[in-house]
Amino acid sequence: MFPQRALPVFGSGWSGLRTQRAVERVATYSSIANTLVNQRLQGSHMVTDQG
Amino acid sequence: MSSNLHRSNWSIVVADDHGPEWAPTVQVGEKPSPVQYSRLGKSSTLLQRAMQRATRVAPPSQIMFTALDEYREYWEPSVWCVRPENRFVGENRATSLLTGAAALLAIAQLSPSNMVTILPARCYVAQEWILRAALERALSILPGVREGVITLGMVDIDEGIDEDYLAVNRARTGAGFTVVGFARRPTSWTARLLVQQGALIASGIMIGYAGVFAAHISKHWPGLTQVLARQSAAAAAAGSECELPMDLQRAVPKLTLKSLR
């Protein structure tokens, strides 16, 4: 067995992307996150216009 | 970390390991590309992010890179800072394990006590600061680890998908866990069972002494060390990329070649 020692890492949101299925899931998450960010930016822009 | 970069710290960014080839695009105007060269919704590619990780653990002159020649158009613009002799380029997939071994042997020849961090380019990290802290911790505890090599095992709230797993026990001495088994892409119910029993997701990230890696290569792939050392020494002398040709396989003993498959 190599290597013989493992250090645990919690909560990094890590994915090895070993298959197409895994890549597509991460891409979907990223896409959703981008949409949310864009919506927030648009929202703040509207507030600025009104202000 | 950059102010603490030690002259014995090296890093190898691995961009030629196997995996899915083409990543879906998530932004308008984005071109489909092999997954390690895709952005997956962020501003930089997975390779560029792995290179940034590498610059935090090793000086730029001590970063090595492995890739496939057929994808040169994707990787070349991102590795301009890597010296040509630190690039290990394979002609086909059969040589992809050999490129990493050649890079490790080249580092071990300079000094077996050099510390090497192996970073797969084909991985996604949402919380970069957590991984950065883990890499720093691994490097700091390495001198006290008897085995001389540590891997990172990932734990998350979300269930992993199509991952490899490390079955572990608490170590009798020192930090971390002892690896007692390796499960390659188990079914989802087996993966859940493994996680319930404390298994960690195998990251493929390794931190260890160059001499330990070299000893492992010599032990398990006899006959390979001299062949690869000759290739990298010739490239270093010429200041050119270390290209591993397809016919290199002929110089590798049949038993060794069989174990690579």
CATH class of chain B: Alpha Beta
Order of helices and strands of chain B: EEEHEHEHEEHEEEHEHHEHH
The residue-averaged pLDDT of chain B reads 88
Oligomeric state: heterodimer
Mind telling me which CATH architecture of chain B this is?
A: Alpha-Beta Complex
CATH topology annotation of chain B: Spore Coat Polysaccharide Biosynthesis Protein SpsA, Chain A
Question: Number of DSSP strands of chain A?
Answer: 2
Note the beta-strand portion of chain B: 15-25%
* Beta-strand content of chain A: 15-25%
Distance between the termini of chain A: 64 Å
Number of domains of chain B: 1
The major sheet of chain A is characterized as: none
Classification by helices and strands of chain A = alpha+beta
Report Rg of chain B.
Answer: 18 Å
Order of H and E elements of chain A: EEH
Derived structural class of chain B: alpha/beta
Please render the helix and strand layout as text.
The complex is a heterodimer of chains A (51) and B (261).
Chain A: E1 5-10, E2 14-15, H1 20-50
Chain B: E1 9-14, E2 22-23, E3 33-34, H1 46-57, E4 63-68, H2 72-75, E5 87-90, H3 96-110, E6 115-120, E7 124-125, H4 128-141, E8 149-155, E9 165-170, E10 177-183, H5 188-196, E11 200-209, H6 210-220, H7 224-238, E12 242-244, H8 248-251, H9 254-260
Parallel strand pairs in B: 1-4, 1-6, 4-5, 5-12
Antiparallel strand pairs in B: 2-3, 6-11, 8-11, 9-10, 9-11
Helix pairs in contact in B: 3-6, 3-7
